[in-house]
Write a structure and sequence with these properties.
oxidoreductase activity, acting on paired donors, with incorporation or reduction of molecular oxygen, dioxygenase activity, globular, alpha+beta, 249 residues, Jelly Rolls
Length: 249
Amino acid sequence: DGVTEVLAHRSDTLQDKFVEVPCSGDYESHKRFAGCTPRKCGRGVTDAVITREEAERIRRIAERGLSLGGSDGGASILDLHSGALSLGKHFVNLYRYFGDKIQDIFTEEDFSLYRDVRQRIQQRIAQVFGISSSAMYLTKPTFFSRMNSTGAKTTHDEYWHPHVDKVTYGSFDYTSLLYLSDYSKDFGGGRFVFMDADSNKTVEPRAGRVSFFTSGSENLHRVERVSWGTRFAITISFSCDPQHSIGDP
């Protein structure tokens, strides 16, 4: 495993922690957008953007939505934008599948909170990387994840493999994760790991913590397998390309 360094302990309350890393060449093979495409790369963690109480309210949105489905394996997703919901070994479109019943599951306040949280995360990322918030666009996929220790049934359940977001999803320039549960209290394992050449840097989730980073190979990462309990998070990602823009759900 090499050397592991903890970037953010669960017990820390971090105002703003930022580590700059040299940018990879991944952005060169995509159209560049002045004032947005990463020139400064790195990773940040903050506990000062979203409150624990807001994180709990958002987790309840995830729990209600995911209670309608769920993967047979250990990783379930719910995408409020596209309506994608894990169900068994497949995905269904939540909005088509449940139709008007959706109004009994999600409220206008839910979507309003989601939008507000998304905007605050976007503003913080823009501030830290010295770019304009209006030059960044919400992009897909943006989704809730629920992970537990159930064995994988399909490749979608294998969330622990190292990957680069810009390679997996060409549209991503900035990735963020809002954690909705606490490492070592709600679940074991499940830490976020940046895999650097010389060592690993881990982030221990805590409800309300936002971890964010530039999406290129400079931030190769993985999530440890969850060994017990349930880990909730939401991935919210941004593109510099207006053609990859999506609206709030």
